[in-house]
């Protein structure tokens, strides 16, 4: 018995021993509609016997059935809106997943094109850097070197001697 109460204290403290199961989904709207019809049917069946219930002090039976039917209408309104919201959210998730898939496909295509463009840009930049390095080396040494872009030595420059 003590083990039961010690386990109960863990639950009360917010330390459950196991996780709660996933909620069950089923025909919620149909269940609520069926219950509402049942409550109203019970009310209508008891209504002709109102005098009998009144004589014995049990009129609360009728009013309970009527309240069940009335609350059932609120329940129908609520679960229909809930189902519509769940359907709408699932449609949005599906649309977002489809959009993400299209974006990934487009990004892959653009990335491949960008890779080619980037490789061409790097090659062109290396060519420019090489040409600038040759010009700088010629200016520093005073001797003409082979121009890598033209494949031959540049024309001799007149010396100031």
Note down, in words, how this protein is organized:
With 161 residues, the protein is mainly alpha-helical. The protein has one domain (27-141). It has four helices and no strands. It has helices at 2-13, 28-46, 50-56, 60-141. Helix 2 (28-46) packs antiparallel against helix 4 (60-141). It starts with a helix and ends in a 20-residue tail after the last helix.
Secondary structure elements and their pairing?
Blueprint: H1 2-13, H2 28-46, H3 50-56, H4 60-141
Helix pairs in contact: 2-4
Q: Cα distance, first to last residue?
A: 115 Å
Reading the helices and strands in chain order gives: HHHH
Residues in β-strands, percent:
under 5%
Overall geometry:
elongated
Q: TL;DR?
A:
This protein has 161 residues and is mostly helical. It has helices at residues 2-13, 28-46, 50-56, 60-141.
Which properties best describe this structure?
mainly alpha, elongated, 75% helix
């Amino acid at each position: 018995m003590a083990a039961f109460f010690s386990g109960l204290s863990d639950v009360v403290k917010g330390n459950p021993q196991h996780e709660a199961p996933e909620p069950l989904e089923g025909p919620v709207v149909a269940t609520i509609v069926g219950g509402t019809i049942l409550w109203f049917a019970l009310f209508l069946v008891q209504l002709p016997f109102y005098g009998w219930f009144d004589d014995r002090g049990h009129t609360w039976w009728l009013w309970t059935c009527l309240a069940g039917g009335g609350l059932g209408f609120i329940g129908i309104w609520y679960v229909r809106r809930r189902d519509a919201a769940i359907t709408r959210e699932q449609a949005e998730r599906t649309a977002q997943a489809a959009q993400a898939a299209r974006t990934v496909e487009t990004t892959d295509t653009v990335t491949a094109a960008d890779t080619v463009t980037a490789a061409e840009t790097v090659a062109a930049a290396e060519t420019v850097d090489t040409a600038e390095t040759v010009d700088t080396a010629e200016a520093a040494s005073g001797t003409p070197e082979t121009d890598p872009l033209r494949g031959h030595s540049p024309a001799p420059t007149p010396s100031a001697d």
